[in-house]
Design a protein that fits this description.
flat, about 190 residues, five-stranded antiparallel beta sheet, six-stranded antiparallel beta sheet, OB fold (Dihydrolipoamide Acetyltransferase, E2P), about 0% helix, SH3 type barrels, single chain
Length: about 190
């Protein structure tokens, strides 16, 4: 059991028998005499991905979750789902479309740097690296003389996702994309 006063960002704890990642912690000391310490915590349910705030008293304790992250590699997709391989044990597992959410927008065969979220020895989801390099397969022609500060245009990536890129980019270019918000970061230098 972990006292709520020792919670830190990134910890995973059990709340209502489900794993929750701690996103933020604030401790308030009431000014009234005899009042107890209040700990406000913002958490994300790792199964449903919902984010909410929870308030605890200073003496409350939470159970540590049987949770871990494992390095995995994306292999391929077929009718059964998305297939991954554990980088240490080389065990393979698959996730369905529902379990993946919008994650496939950034997956290409052989992608490494992915973390599997494992709860009670069962994979409940994956966490992508902060950014990935993808190829532009369809966009308007590059405009000569356009600068990095110029306007943007839509570009379709090899995964099917469409993002906004600078006007000077053309088909076949490789770009670095932020997986958290789906925005263009820079032209990839191979």
């Amino acid at each position: 059991m972990i006292p709520v006063t020792e919670l830190k960002r990134g910890m995973v704890v059990e709340i209502d028998s489900e794993p929750h990642a701690v996103l933020d912690v604030s401790i308030q000391t009431p000014s009234a005499r005899g009042a107890s310490l209040i700990v406000k915590v913002r958490v994300r349910n790792l199964k449903s991905t919902s984010v909410f705030d929870k308030t605890f008293r200073g003496g409350d304790k939470l159970a540590e979750s049987n949770f871990e992250k494992r390095a995995v590699q994306y292999l391929y997709r077929d009718a059964a789902g998305y297939h991954f391989m554990d980088q240490e044990s080389f065990d393979q597992f698959q996730l369905s479309d529902e379990e993946m959410g919008d994650t496939p927008d950034y997956l290409i065969d052989g992608l490494e740097g992915i973390q599997a979220m494992v709860y009670n020895e069962k994979v409940i989801g994956i966490e992508l690296p902060a950014h990935v390099v993808l190829q532009v397969v369809e966009c308007d022609p590059a405009i000569k003389g356009a600068t990095a500060q110029a306007r943007t245009k839509p570009a379709k990536l090899e995964t099917g996702k469409t993002i906004q890129v600078p006007e000077y980019l053309g088909n076949g270019e490789r770009v670095r994309v932020d997986t958290r918000d789906g925005r263009y970061i820079e032209r990839a230098r191979d």
